[in-house]
Design goal:
The protein is mainly alpha-helical. The protein contains seven helices and two strands, in the order H-H-H-H-H-H-H-E-E. Helix 1 packs antiparallel against helix 2, helix 1 runs parallel beside helix 3 and helix 4 runs antiparallel to helix 5. It starts with a helix and ends in a 7-residue tail after the last strand.
Length: about 220
């Protein structure tokens, strides 16, 4: 009987021993994963710091590669989103210096997605938009910065400067469009013995809207 009870005792405890072993293995794997994660975070930070030194030295391509390395090493967990936002933004700075503003815009957009209140990414994207003459987009980004923090001097100055440039650009585009329409209009109106000189656009100072006046003899006072 003793042997029987001993066998039952061993049988009843066997699953618990297996479960305990499995739990230990899972715990060890978790610890290993956490250790690797912390190691990767540290290595990513080191790559970023090395990239910063190279950037200061004007070695933008080498710095770009190190920021890319930091992005590869950095874990994808939400708690490291800001880290990745910084790496994307720093790489964008390299891309601007390397004459690749379109790619810089993409990196800044990634940075903003990861950290929506990261003003440096908005400012850098604004700078990249200027490089490709997208002044309205550049101005929009500066305005977003001022919504987040209205005291940033660089953003305040940029808004004033870009507002003037955007207005000038819009006026230039409007003049070019009117010239094209005038050329097209003269082609059509010429068939009827008329030209666009017979029509004069008059702006209402109160509303800013335009009306068109017709003159049979435009050259006469």
């Amino acid at each position: 009987m003793a042997d029987r009870f001993e066998i039952l005792e061993e049988t009843s405890h066997a699953p618990e021993k297996v479960q305990s072993k499995n739990e230990d293995e899972e715990l060890n794997e978790l610890v290993e994963e956490l250790t690797i994660e912390k190691k990767d975070v540290k290595l990513a930070s080191q790559a970023k710091e090395e990239g910063n030194e190279l950037f200061k030295a004007g070695r933008y391509l080498d710095a770009h590669d190190l920021y890319s390395k930091a992005l590869r090493l950095c874990p994808t967990d939400d708690e490291y989103a800001y880290n990745k936002a910084v790496y994307f933004n720093n790489r964008a700075a390299c891309l601007i210096h390397l004459g690749r503003p379109d790619e810089a815009i993409e990196d800044c957009t990634q940075s903003i997605t990861l950290s929506p209140t990261y003003v440096k990414a908005y400012m850098r994207r604004s700078q990249a938009y200027e490089k490709i003459d997208k002044l309205e987009e550049a101005l929009q980004d500066v305005k977003k910065v001022l919504k987040i923090d209205p005291t940033i001097p660089a953003a305040i100055d940029a808004e004033k400067r870009l507002s003037v440039q955007v207005k000038e650009q819009q006026e230039k585009m409007k003049a070019e469009m009117l010239d094209k329409l005038k050329g097209f209009g003269n082609t059509i109106l010429g068939k009827f013995g008329l030209s666009t000189d017979n029509f004069k656009m008059v702006q209402d100072p109160a509303t800013g809207s335009y009306s068109i006046n017709f003159s049979q003899n435009p050259t006469k006072p």
